[in-house]
Amino acid sequence: MDSLALLLLLSPFVGFLINVFFGKKLGHNGAGYLATLAVVVSFVATLVFFLGLNGGAKPSEIKLFDWLSVNNFNIEFGFLLDQLSVLWLMFVTGIGSLIHLYSVSYMHDDENRHKFFAYLNLFVFFMISLVMGSNLLVMFIGWEGVGLCSYLLIGFWYKNQDYNDAAKKAFIMNRVGDLGLLIGIFILATLFGTLNFTELNATILGGTNAGNTTWIAAAALALFIGACGKSAQIPLYTWLPDAMAGPTPVSALIHAATMVTAGIFMVTRLHVLFDLAPVVLDVIAYVGAFTALMAATIGLVQNDIKKVLAYSTVSQLGLMFLALGMGAYEVAVFHVITHAFFKACLFLGSGSVIHALHGEQDMRNMGGLRKAMPITFVTMLISSLAISGIFPLAGFWSKDEILMVSFHGNKALWVIGSVASVLTAFYMFRLMYLTFFNDFRGTDEQKHHLHESPALITFPLIVLGTLAAIGGLISLPGHSWLNHYLAPLFAEKTHEAHHLGTTEYLLMAVATVGALIGIGIAYAKYIKQKQLPETDENISGFTKVLYDKYYVDEAYEAIIVKPINFLSRFFRDYIETAVAGFVFGFARAANEIGYQGKKLQNGNVGFYLFAFVLGVCAIISYVFLAK
Amino acid sequence: MGNVLNQIGIENYIFLAVILFCIGVFGVLYRRNAIIVFMSIEIMLNAVNLLFVAFSTYHQDAQGQIFVFFSMAVAAAEVAVGLAIVVSIFRNLGSIDIDNLKNLKG
């Protein structure tokens, strides 16, 4: 089993190495198929573990070697394959395989294909080590690694300076969060003397240091800041919409389905710790709810098809954090999975549209694509219905559960979450109507070339669309396979039986009606009245505020970036000048002494002899006087 | 041997050696002719040799005399090399005035 786990982990890494060094020689699509194969191998290995665990096998922990051993503090390099990590690996490698396959076609005429697939493979490798790590430090390696790959892939088209800036922004914002994560890790190491998840859980449940609530809350908060960075929550979310600069498969894989869920994974992993800090859970719930609402409102008016999806992702991640904050970790995990299905499908669908329109991303120049691209249309429609929460698609079940737990926990947050859901339904169908309905608004040349994408693109769409439709089956209320599967993780919790009363049915009805209202408004606006979003110059009023994303970027620019730049300039102009002047002073002195000393060597042999005699005299007098 | 010292006195040897050494030093400092500078150096060497021998006798210790043999041998070798250099300089410059040897200027 150990070697299988290593195969799972290293297969994408080997793919990365081969693609990096020999990718160019593998023929036109060789690099792509090789990368896909590497991830499929991982998927198959995961499937073996998954079936084993589902059949009742024990979670396995693999210790490779001791990494750090100081006094009583020991960190081993090891991996933990339990219900949670294997579940995560299932959709990371599963959706990863589909997206790799999709990319083979999507990137087929890019000259740096092999580099693209090398990065993708490297990303999957790091994501697997993030998920599989048996302690926080191994997880941190993966955490940093996926950040790096995210940076590389956002800036993949490096000739565009805007894309490079977006990549840097993502990287730097993530660093802020990573600092929080590191601080959290340090506090945990100090408090509990171990970073191993199993031992941490046992120690915390055993009551060691459990009374030290201040420090535990501090650790939980610091870890949550880390999660905020990776999972794009207020205040560290602005990198994610900009990250859409990367190729669309990257947005689907990294910035929708996998990497951005790392924060939720980490919180779920350490849920025992978070349970001890109810204040932090409240913070998480509020941050999640407000992120969900804020991102949804921004999503209402965006015109770039990928930007809408990006804000939708931020919003959905907010809902997941809302569930985490309510202590309903399994519900958050459920939404992570369903979201991975329908959001990956939506992103890939938008990629298919962009592909057909030769790079056009502005929805104002689309329209009427329904007939030209039926498969893309149908799969995206299913996913949109799913994300809006229409019965009986996947999103309905997961979103409904989130709203249900927040209704029982905090009515105000339930209202915010519900409003965000209604807005979600609206902006998703705004996207659908603008893209696929009415008449085509692009150029004649584009119209002439309109076509359904090739099979390599539509196949992943069909698979993901199907999953978006039926994904809810894994956790139906009352008969939840997911809760049963994850039960060993939450063994310490006394589960109240999930009974479905009138309240629950009423909540479902409210949620569905809300979603229908959202869709209805979109229909009235964009189909009935055939409205089009205004051109950039004509946007005014509150729409303008939304369109410019509440000016958060500008505020960050003024509050953080400008002062830091000022400080840097100050250090460069004054402090560095002083330090450099001091250091260079020595060099200048040595130079001057040498220059003057050079004159002594004047070629006059008589002078040399004189100096020689003087020297002898000096030595002799020294010898005598010293005695 | 002892009687030699009895008749003349160790201090006279020292005076002689000092005078010879000073002559050598001044020769080195004041003369411009390379061969004379050379000879002056030899005079200094021999002043030291003289001291060695005198003290060797005074202390009834043969070590000093052995040293002198060594330094004479070294001086002979040095002269051989030095004169060769002087000849070579003369061939190149047509002069052995050390004031003309400015090619080594740094």
TrEMBL record, chain A:
The chain crosses the membrane at residues 33-52, 87-104, 116-134, 140-158, 179-195, 215-240, 252-271, 283-301, 308-326, 332-354, 375-397, 412-434, 455-476, 505-524, 605-625. GO terms for molecular function: NADH dehydrogenase (ubiquinone) activity; NADH dehydrogenase activity. InterPro entries: NADHpl_OxRdtase_5_subgr (IPR018393), ND/Mrp_TM (IPR001750), NU5C-like (IPR003945), Proton_antipo_N (IPR001516). Keywords: Membrane, Transmembrane, Transmembrane helix. It comes from the Bacteria. It is found in: Endomembrane system; Membrane. Residues 67-117 form the NADH-Ubiquinone oxidoreductase (complex I) chain 5 N-terminal domain. One of its GO terms (biological process) is ATP synthesis coupled electron transport. GO terms for cellular component: endomembrane system; membrane. Residues 134-424 form the NADH:quinone oxidoreductase/Mrp antiporter transmembrane domain. It is a multi-pass membrane protein. This is NADH-quinone oxidoreductase subunit L. It comes from Flavobacterium caeni.
Automatic annotation (TrEMBL), chain B:
Its main location: membrane. The chain crosses the membrane at residues 12-30, 36-55, 67-90. InterPro entries: NADH_UbQ_OxRdtase_chain4L/K (IPR001133), NUOK/Mnh_C1-like (IPR039428). One of its GO terms (biological process) is ATP synthesis coupled electron transport. It is found in: Cell membrane; Membrane. Keywords: Cell membrane, Membrane, NAD, Quinone, Translocase, Transmembrane, Transmembrane helix, Transport. It comes from the Bacteria. One of its GO terms (cellular component) is plasma membrane. It catalyses: a quinone + NADH + 5 H(+)(in) = a quinol + NAD(+) + 4 H(+)(out). The keyword Translocase applies. GO terms for molecular function: NADH dehydrogenase (quinone) (non-electrogenic) activity; quinone binding. It is a multi-pass membrane protein. Pfam families: Oxidored_q2 (PF00420). Its EC number is 7.1.1.-. The keyword Cytoplasm does not apply. Belongs to the complex I subunit 4L family. NDH-1 shuttles electrons from NADH, via FMN and iron-sulfur (Fe-S) centers, to quinones in the respiratory chain. The immediate electron acceptor for the enzyme in this species is believed to be ubiquinone. Couples the redox reaction to proton translocation (for every two electrons transferred, four hydrogen ions are translocated across the cytoplasmic membrane), and thus conserves the redox energy in a proton gradient. NDH-1 is composed of 14 different subunits. Subunits NuoA, H, J, K, L, M, N constitute the membrane sector of the complex. This is NADH-quinone oxidoreductase subunit K. It comes from Flavobacterium caeni.
